[in-house]
Amino acid sequence: MSSSFRAPQLDIDLRPGKPPILRTDANGDALSWVAEHRDALRAVVAEHGSVLLRGLGPRDAAETGAVFRVMGPTGLMTEKEAFAPRQTYPGGVYSSSKWPANQPMCMHHELSYTLEFPGLMLFACLSAPTDGGATGVADSPSVLDALPGELIERFEREGWLLIRVYNDDIGASWAEAFGTEDRGAVESYCRANAIDFEWQPGGGLRTRQRRSAVVRHPVTGRRCWFNQIAFLSEWTIDPEVREYLVDVYGADALPFNTRFGNGDPIGEDVIQLINKVYEANTAREPWQAGDLMLVDNIRTAHSRDPYEGPREVLVAMAAPVRLADCSPTVEVTTR
């Protein structure tokens, strides 16, 4: 059964298991169409947490960037602390993260380990894969309600800890993540953003940052499960890949891992439970070339399914939000 929600001038198709979908009549002029309907689109995202626009048809990175910038109320953000390298296009547009096509990207909220993160994520598909590769979405208040109360209480009390060991082999290097090869600039950024850091022999960098796992949406006040606890956990990595990384780097020097806020390990059973709840609340729709997706990054988590064939999805981040404005449950101290 399907239903329809009518925002001004827009008919949104709502179906179980699917994100809200709007079929546009852009007629090859994506920029003008989005500019005309911008306020109505923002109302749809505020109502539902995301919307997939079908038929806009941006043709390249330049046109996609222009469309993105119309939707970003204060311009597009520059990514900091990236976990994986991306190709960078002019004006705040990026490729999707370089991640093995045969491996899923678990549900997460973009840059939820930073002190300022995007309130709005924008995705545009220039080339759809032959199979798989959907960007799934999940309602974070629903995920929060479905997780065990005792687990939520612990994460609210302690927060979560992200541990990263930057190297030149796996994921983004520290120079890529921080946008500079100046060690002094990296140290200043870390101090200003409540990140403990330690330079490693050979030039690597190890960081630790404690963040809230549950926040309140700055507009609606709704409690949201907002983190990357499962995505950046050792237990979400493919078992064979994890075994290889442990053999090469050691269990305490994985490129990234998560723990409870007090430093205790998070068991595989907890990560499996979180991912199971995510999957039960996931809505997905296969990409078609020309699609655009808008996602409220606090209200809605997103993921990426494994895929086959070429896939080109461009990404931008907009509407910056400060963690301090989201009622964090754990205190962070900058220096």
TrEMBL record:
Pfam families noted in UniProt: TauD
Keywords: Antibiotic biosynthesis, Iron, Oxidoreductase
Superkingdom assignment: Bacteria
GO molecular function: oxidoreductase activity
InterPro entries reported for this sequence: AlphaKG_dependent_hydroxylases, TauD-like_sf, TauD/TfdA-like
Record-annotated TauD/TfdA-like domain positions: 31-317
Cofactor: Fe(2+)
A Gene Ontology biological process term: antibiotic biosynthetic process
Record-linked PANTHER family: GAMMA-BUTYROBETAINE HYDROXYLASE-RELATED (PTHR10696), TAUD_TFDA-LIKE DOMAIN-CONTAINING PROTEIN (PTHR10696:SF56)
Name recorded for this polypeptide: SyrP-like protein
